[in-house]
From TrEMBL, chain A:
Name of the protein in its database record: Nucleotide-binding universal stress protein, UspA family
CDD domains found in the cross-reference section: USP-like
Lineage: Bacteria, Pseudomonadati, Pseudomonadota, Alphaproteobacteria, Rhodobacterales
InterPro entries from the UniProt entry: Rossmann-like_a/b/a_fold (IPR014729), UspA (IPR006016)
Gene3D superfamilies linked to this entry: HUPs (3.40.50.620)
Top-level division of the source organism's lineage: Bacteria
Domain UspA intervals: 6-145
TrEMBL record, chain B:
Taxonomy, superkingdom: Bacteria
Family per similarity comment: Belongs to the alanine or glycine:cation symporter (AGCS) (TC 2.A.25) family.
Signal peptide annotation: 1-22
Its membrane topology: Multi-pass membrane protein
Bilayer-crossing regions: 53-74, 185-204, 224-243, 255-273, 285-304, 345-365, 402-425, 445-467, 473-492
Keyword Cell cycle in annotation: no
Protein name: Alanine or glycine:cation symporter, AGCS family
Keywords, alphabetical: Cell inner membrane, Cell membrane, Membrane, Signal, Symport, Transmembrane, Transmembrane helix, Transport
Length: 145, 512
């Protein structure tokens, strides 16, 4: 068993399945641990209505609970079933910098991210998560189709 | 109850009876409105014996001065720290996803930045002369300390419920704070504040907005009965606040800040295009502040108008902002006070001054070329203006002097500002309503229905009675709130001293 840690930028749902399967397979082969990073997109500069302000804390709790129960926990379980140790990380903010930061803080040797699947003009202008990670990650980044 | 029944009862008939009958209804509403509210307006704006200075203006000025002195000019000393807090320099990254200081400030601002900055300033300048701008800026600067006090208390004494939602505002700090200080009468004072908040929500937060939205729309589209704008606005508002069409509210909340930024950019452009007159305009403002420059009431006329419109615009001392600011996620209540003090600065010192400068520079206020004094139109009770317009139409006319397309854009902005402010105030009013009557769908629906009916009344009533009633209600909130702030300011002082000490010792860390 190596001490290697692979970070998986994991969005959950159908889109996250490929990257998770691939990361589990690679981790098993290398004897690495997985760190699943799920980011809830959030900007402190978003505009909210007064009702949204009032309910924000409660909604955040709900969002965290739901993401933990429906995204992180099943993915950890899937990895464990495959014989791979996995931990989960939930955070709010912008996906690219937070995944890169998580990789740095846990000394990961590789990042796995699913292909965004979008070739829209918006993605080309503003960049997608895989492109963003490819640009700023301090470790090799694998983009899984 | 005649107010509530009449517009809807006659609406169907009006469609058949035509514009003449509709205009008649407008006048009837105006008459009734004036008849039932004028006594209260007179009471709130009564002059101090032997002077022509209203006691309520003095009330707010003195409050702002006392808070400024008591907190050691916090608006000056704490200004840069406020900016750092809004930027998130002191926000714990673990709190990401919670309400940020910026969000609380932006939401509170979208309730305050709006018609007060566009129409209110025009009213102040046309009645009080350019000098009113000076007093408006002064009131804005001192009002920052008042806002600091009330928003710190808003966060400190908010209610946090088991489901994670929060409720705050003067009614909560009055009740809890008075109890903490061993003072009696807290619940009664809180109830009084709630009554005024409900009436303020129906007045300044509703009718004034609807009235000015109609004035601007009819200026662009041509004259038509006010109740038509009222009915449309009432339906849309009802759909949002009672029908759950939250997407409209979200879009409005997102568009309004950009409208405000665009408004400032256009104002700056006009000032740049007339750069040679900026010094002259400031000269008029300073000279007018102390002489009146022909305005009836002279120095005091300018001062009263400046203070009235500043308070109406930035709501410092009114207590409404404390409701919006109380939702922020912070362990330090005083940080929200710091952030909130930026509100009167942005609202009054920056945006209102822009409007006033454009009105003065574009020359829509008529001056006697020989004496340099402004020509008083006694019949209208204001300075003579091009086209004898006032309120939002005056601002529109001023901007149109440079950008002829501006009235159309301003009409859209005014409707959006009005709508956004109405949504904010429907929330403030509802908070006061549920504080008084308890929560429950039926109870909330009753308030929301009344709120929407008042939109129709506001659209149909003439500017005079509506603006006076709006002011009277908002200032009534300020009477109660400021009394409470005097009693509770030692608590804020204690919070501030502790916070500053920990900030200096490095206990409070900078994260960014």
């Amino acid at each position: 068993m190596s001490n290697e840690v692979f970070v998986v930028a994991y969005e959950g749902g159908g889109g996250g399945s490929n990257v998770l399967d691939y990361a589990i397979a690679r981790a098993k082969k290398e004897g690495a641990e997985l760190r699943l990073v799920h980011v809830l997109e959030w900007s402190p500069y978003q505009f909210l209505t007064p009702e949204e302000l009032e309910e924000r804390h409660a909604r955040r709790n709900d969002e965290v609970r739901r993401a933990q129960a429906h995204i992180i926990d099943p993915a950890i379980e899937k990895a464990r079933t495959a014989g791979v140790t996995a931990t989960g990380d939930l955070s709010y903010g912008s996906v690219v910098p937070l995944v890169a930061k998580a990789a740095k803080s846990c000394g990961a040797s590789m990042i796995f991210v699913g292909r965004s699947g979008s070739d829209s003009i918006g993605a080309r202008i503003f960049g997608s998560v895989p492109l963003g990670l490819a640009q700023i990650a301090s470790v090799p980044t694998v983009i899984v189709p | 109850m005649q107010f509530f029944k009449m517009p809807t009862a006659l609406a169907a008939g009006l469609i058949l009876a035509g514009p003449a009958a509709a205009q008649g209804i407008d006048e009837t509403i105006n008459g009734l409105f004036d008849q039932y509210t004028s006594w209260y307006v007179a009471l709130i704006f009564a002059d101090l014996p032997g002077t022509n200075f209203s006691w309520i203006a003095l009330w707010l000025v003195v409050a702002a001065l006392i808070f400024t002195w008591y907190f050691g000019a916090i608006q000056l000393k704490g200004f840069t720290h406020s900016i750092k807090l809004v930027k998130g320099d002191y926000s714990d990254p673990n709190d990401a996803g919670e309400v940020s200081h910026f969000q609380a400030l932006a939401t509170a601002l979208s309730g305050t930045v709006g018609l007060g900055n566009i129409a209110g300033v025009a009213v102040a300048v046309s009645i009080g002369g350019p000098g009113a701008t000076f007093w408006m800026i002064i009131a804005g600067l001192f009002g920052m300390a008042t806002k600091f006090t009330e928003c710190t208390l808003g966060v400190k004494y908010r209610n946090e419920y088991a489901d994670g939602t929060v409720s705050g505002g003067p009614m909560y700090y009055i009740t809890k704070g008075f109890r903490e200080r061993g003072l009696k009468g807290g619940p009664a004072v809180a109830i009084l504040f709630c009554i005024f908040t409900i009436l303020g929500a129906l007045g300044g937060g509703n009718m004034f907005q609807a009235n000015q939205a109609h004035a601007q729309l009819s200026g662009v589209l041509g004259e038509y009965p006010g109740w038509i704008t009222g009915v449309i606005l009432a339906i849309v508002t009802f759909a949002v606040i009672a029908g759950g069409l939250k997407s409209i509210a979200r879009v409005t909340e997102k568009v309004v800040p950009f409208m405000a930024i665009f408004y400032v950019i256009v104002s700056v452009l006009i000032l740049i295009l007339n750069a040679d007159q900026i010094l002259w305009a400031f000269g008029q403002i300073f000279q007018g502040a102390f002489t009146g420059l022909g305005v009836v009431g002279g120095f005091t006329g300018a001062l009263i108008q400046g203070f009235r419109r500043a308070a109406f615009s930035n709501e410092a001392g009114i207590g409404s902002a404390a409701i919006a600011h109380s939702a922020v996620r912070t362990k330090e209540p005083v940080t929200e006070g710091y952030v909130a003090l930026l509100e009167p600065f942005i609202d009054t010192v920056v945006i209102c001054t822009m409007t006033a400068l454009v009105i003065v520079i574009t020359g829509v206020l008529n001056q006697d070329p020989e004496t340099g004094l402004y020509i008083w139109n006694a019949e209208a009770g204001q300075i003579r203006t091009d086209g004898n317009v006032s309120g939002v139409e005056l601002t529109s006319a001023a901007y149109a002097q440079v950008f002829p397309w501006f009235p159309v854009l301003l009409a859209i902005a005014v409707v959006l500002f009005a709508f956004s402010t109405m949504l904010s105030w429907s929330y403030y009013g509802l908070k006061a309503w549920t504080y008084l009557f308890g929560e429950g769908k039926t109870k909330e629906l009753v308030f929301k229905t009344i709120f929407c009916l008042f939109i129709i009344v506001g659209s149909a009533a003439s500017l005079g009675p509506v603006i006076d009633f709006s002011d009277a209600m908002l200032f009534s909130m300020a009477v109660v709130n400021v009394i409470a702030l005097y009693f509770l300011m030692p608590i804020v002082r204690q919070e501030l001293d502790q916070y500053v000490a920990r900030l200096r010792s490095g206990e409070i860390k900078k994260f960014n």
